[in-house]
Amino acid sequence: MFVFIGNLGLPGCDTVCVNLSAKEILDLAEEIIHKSTRVHDAVALVSLDKLSYENVVLPLAELEARQLSLIQCCVFPKMLSPHDNVRKASTEAEQKIDAHILSCRKREDVYRIIKIYAAKGESISPEAKCYLQCLVRDFEDNGLNLTAIKREEVERLKYEIDELSLRYIQNLNEDSSCLFFTEDELAGLPLEFLQNLEKTQNKEFKLTLESRHVAAILELCKIAKTRKTVAMAYGKRCGDTNIPVLQRLVQSRHRLARVCGYAHFADYALDRRMSKTSMRVIRFLEDISSSLTDLAIREFSILEDLKRKEEGEIPFGVEDLLYYIKRVEELQFDLDFGDIRQYFPVNLVLSGIFKICQDLFGIKFEEVTEVDVWYHDIRAFAVFDSGSGKLLGYFYLDMFTREGKCNHSCVVALQNNALFSNGACQIPVALLIAQFAKDGSGEAVPLGFSDVVNLFHEFGHVVQHICNRASFARFSGLRVDPDFREIPSQLLENWCYESFTLKLISGYRQDITKPLVDEVCKTLKRWRYSFSALKSLQEILYCLFDQIIYSDDDADLLQLIRSLHPKVMIGLPVVEGTNPASCFPRAVIGSEATCYSRLWSEVYAADIFASKFGDGHPNLYAGLQFRDKVLAPGGGKEPMELLTNFLGREPSTQAFIASRTNYSL
Description:
Elements: H1 22-44, H2 53-75, H3 77-80, H4 84-104, H5 108-120, H6 126-140, H7 148-174, E1 178-181, H8 191-195, E2 198-199, E3 205-208, H9 211-220, H10 224-235, H11 239-259, H12 265-270, H13 278-311, H14 321-332, H15 337-341, H16 346-361, E4 363-368, E5 379-385, E6 391-400, E7 410-415, E8 418-419, E9 425-426, E10 429-436, H17 449-466, H18 482-485, H19 487-493, H20 499-505, H21 518-528, H22 532-549, H23 557-568, H24 597-612, H25 620-631, H26 639-647, H27 654-662
Parallel strand pairs: 6-10
Antiparallel strand pairs: 1-3, 2-3, 4-5, 5-6, 7-10, 8-9
Helix pairs in contact: 1-2, 1-4, 1-5, 5-6, 7-11, 9-14, 13-14, 13-22, 17-19, 19-24, 22-23, 24-27, 25-26
Keywords: Cytoplasm, Hydrolase, Metal-binding, Metalloprotease, Protease, Zinc
GO biological process, one term: proteolysis
Family: Belongs to the peptidase M3 family.
């Protein structure tokens, strides 16, 4: 095993090294591949009359557990290292390791041994049996259970799908469409926004169709014609090129699913998720849609009345939604988010999150100072059980933007919990990446409210990872069903809107003894749910579109959105001449047939919060139950079983619907 020389690592956790040089990363990658090859070779050579759990499954399980942290030592620096050569080596190492892992999952000799052992039906623990099933699926996902002809077809289709997906995204990235407007036509846009736009010799502003520009126009521009022009241009992007690409892509995915034994791609994509089938997802989305329709109609009437007062009898279009939602919110909520920002210093928010998690989940945090980090402002923390004092795990915090750092927020599992056959226990280590700012003097800028919510969300993933106690690394931490993965984070977000929490985590920048006043706390909660029915219906529209095209061989992409849009959006037609299918990347790469998953998590998190934590205060008993019954088992059990065991019934959509109705305008 690779030895880290001179590594000042986390106490008792010598397999996580976060500041390897470029050479060390590449050397470690080679060592990982070499060790993995030896283990797979050994499994492949086990005599058929001597197959056992100890010589077939256990070596692969322990290899996976031990190597995850080593792989992450190679891979995560590409996102965070301040050194170009380290990021380059990390990218190269990831490519080599990914290629090796894929080659291992195509080894027929290893698959044959695992398949024969599985057929023996040896008595092993439920978690071990689940892991064995996952091993079999690893190989069968690469077609090893198919005939040679079908396997070639799978490879061909996967290549075709990758090519078409890339072409779709490239078309969008290369789109250079732009519009030109006078200053009067951009009335309502802030001066700072206009100053950042290119100006022509005719004194017109050049507006590209970048999403940030489009969002600003649709939300802030007072001129209805401008909003419609921008919405039409944005919705027509790549229409002639991407619609045919998406049609071919959808058909290729359906063919892939059929070769693998599924009726259509949606069921292929959902088979191992909490939702299970496309029919269940569509029913879930349609149930929420129908439950929110009456509220959405009432919300829409408010917007329509205001547009009529301000613009006369011009018909209300979907392109007007963002603008008039913001207008009504400005009129009904006395919230100055610029002022609110001054109440959320980073360290105060962080200490408040620690206190909430301590009171809620029975865990406490201690900073680890004598430890290697990859940049000077990185912090590391140990997490202990409050009752027993037992060390549960560690996490790093990389909170501030800098050159060379990735530009998104997330949590990365650096090491998963695992139990080994010799009785040793490997503890989890997480890394939380945020994108907070510093001012010119290097001081942390107070957080905007959306940053606060995001930090709570990501910290939910940290808690989820640290509190997991699965015996197998495969089921530990964040390696759970994607439909389930976001539920703990969505749950923790709820406390951002409770007065108790807001007072705990807020304090005026110049006098932190002064938290947000009661009225602002209450208003933030009402603001959270303003026009929530209409916003949810917009999300459901795209989720349904995604689900239908991947569950219906004959779906007409051109007609589907035209019929679906008014049906879901209470009669509002799609913007004239547009088809979102031409510019809907989530349905192409990353969330194909699974766009519903974020909403699914939010709905079930709302049920958990309302049922167990409804008064807005941390409930230690309920929190410990959640930690023990939901977080600890991880991916080794069915998520629906975990939630049903915790709630005492199957999860429901009722709390989600009720929260929107109770706080309606």
